[in-house]
């Protein structure tokens, strides 16, 4: 029996070491839990919170970017509409200015035409007056020379021709 006990002890489980290891394991686990597990868990919680916040922030940024994109598209549509209105107004103003200029040009041309007609009529009247005066002077001169000289028919004709030539030369000079 003594030998069996020693053999049993040599071949059996040594309960004292096992309890020692179990107590040591429990103490080690308590130390790990106290010194390592808490900080590691806290670090992991902080990391998880940071990742969740980053995801929320990214989602919020995406929503803001979509809103900004919608606003930009709306502004772009508004600017296209406004540009179209500006172009249309410019076209209408151009048409109005063209019509005003054409109407003014027609009026001015008509006024110039009337002025030219009046000037031509005045010049014609002045020329007729000048011719009347010249013919009257010439007639008086011829008459005075005919009266002062008793000329023959050929001499009278030559005298009239010379005065008419002189009259033509006077009109060319004017």
From TrEMBL:
Protein topology in the membrane: Single-pass membrane protein
UniProt entry keywords in alphabetical sequence:
ATP synthesis, Cell membrane, CF(0), Coiled coil, Hydrogen ion transport, Ion transport, Membrane, Transmembrane, Transmembrane helix, Transport
Query: Tell me, what is one Gene Ontology molecular-function annotation carried by this entry?
Result: proton-transporting ATP synthase activity, rotational mechanism
Regions annotated as coiled coil = 48-126
Q: Which GO terms describe its cellular component?
A: endomembrane system; plasma membrane; proton-transporting ATP synthase complex
- Is Cell membrane found in the keyword set? yes
Instruction: Give the family, as the similarity comment puts it.
Output: Belongs to the ATPase B chain family.
Q: How does it assemble?
A: F-type ATPases have 2 components, F(1) - the catalytic core - and F(0) - the membrane proton channel. F(1) has five subunits: alpha(3), beta(3), gamma(1), delta(1), epsilon(1). F(0) has three main subunits: a(1), b(2) and c(10-14). The alpha and beta chains form an alternating ring which encloses part of the gamma chain. F(1) is attached to F(0) by a central stalk formed by the gamma and epsilon chains, while a peripheral stalk is formed by the delta and b chains.
Function summary: F(1)F(0) ATP synthase produces ATP from ADP in the presence of a proton or sodium gradient. F-type ATPases consist of two structural domains, F(1) containing the extramembraneous catalytic core and F(0) containing the membrane proton channel, linked together by a central stalk and a peripheral stalk. During catalysis, ATP synthesis in the catalytic domain of F(1) is coupled via a rotary mechanism of the central stalk subunits to proton translocation.
Query: Per its record, how is this protein called by name?
Result: ATP synthase subunit b
